[in-house]
Amino acid sequence: MKDxxxxxxxxxxxxxxxxxxxxxxxxxxxGIELKKTKNQVEVENSFQCxxxxxxxxxxxxxxPIFLVVNNEFIITKKIESNxxxxxxxxxLAFPNIKTYDFYxxxxxxDNTHFVSICRKTHLDKLLENCTSNKLSIIDFSLGxxxxxxxxxxxxQNDIHTANRHISKVNGQIKNIELLENLANxxxxxxxxxxxxxxxxxxxxxxxxxxxxxxxDSSFETTQINLLTNYKEKRFFKQFLKIGLTCLFIxxxxxxxxxxxxxxxxxxxxxxxxxxxxxxxxxxxxxxxxQKTQKMxxxxxxGNASKSSFYVDAVINSVPDxxxxxxxxxxxxxxxxxxxxxxxxxxxxxxxxxxxxxxILVSNWISELESIDWIKQVExxxxxxxxxxxxLFSFKIHILK
Length: 400
Prior knowledge:
The chain is α+β, with helices and mostly antiparallel strands. It has a 5-stranded mixed β-sheet with strand order 3-2-1-4-8, with helices on both faces. A 4-stranded antiparallel β-sheet has the order 5-7-6-14. It has a 4-stranded antiparallel β-sheet with strand order 15-16-18-17, with helices on one face. The protein is rod-shaped and about 165 Å long.
């Protein structure tokens, strides 16, 4: 699982094979795009163009590419020998070659070997041009030798590429010939159908995925450098992307966390405001209660202990024929107003009522005046209401 993840982070799931072929004295680029899904490989797209600069229209930036150089600068020779040493086979094919001036690649088989060579100056220049056109070449092959990646999958013994005729016997390549004006043909294998112009590009892209190259070469160091440069660029890009993503996630999480606490703080602030308002209301009500209590205490203050005594004495002295309508002890001098001290007419009892006999009222007043705590009885009104009754009102002044 770890290897799969690392491979995906390094290469992604799309691989590209690209062949630079010489066809009828014209350079043509044949390309193919493979998509790796689990344990399957699917052909997503194929393309061709005449200019290197046009390839960016088909291959996205930073995608891995296997380049097959199959033009007039590549020389391929067939060697019949039992030798297995790479340099021995090379010198059998090219006796006077200066190895430091050439890149070479060898397909070793039982008795038949194929050697492809190319001058380093040409290939290095081509790789530089690919880099300047934002093409990420991570591996390359010379001539048509990369066909060995899929030759065993193709049932036909005669295989045509864009400019080569390849024949095989008993599963091994026996001949590679340069041919012009090859007819367009198709090959089917493993539920995949490919044109002859797509075979080498497909073989190259598949080699990136399967990593089952059967070729010996002199450019392992160059291949390692290409792969290392690609990995460094990919790592930097992925690291930057993952870093920015992590930073964004952290900022987003921080935002939601801050927003959550901010909402809670707002709720607490609103609750605090409600509590403050309620507290102010309670304080206001408490002040009103205290003022009301003070007013009540003011009413009851002074002679409070004797009020029931005075009222009880007056009530007990009322004759049977007299009916009281009012008995007001310490009546108010003014109407009660908010935040104002209650003013009472102290040491006063107001009495009103009706009597069926006028003489009874006079006698009762005389009786009241004889009480030692009564200073004076002041008649306020006395009038006949009818022949049988009269209305009266008087004020009792109490001694202080």
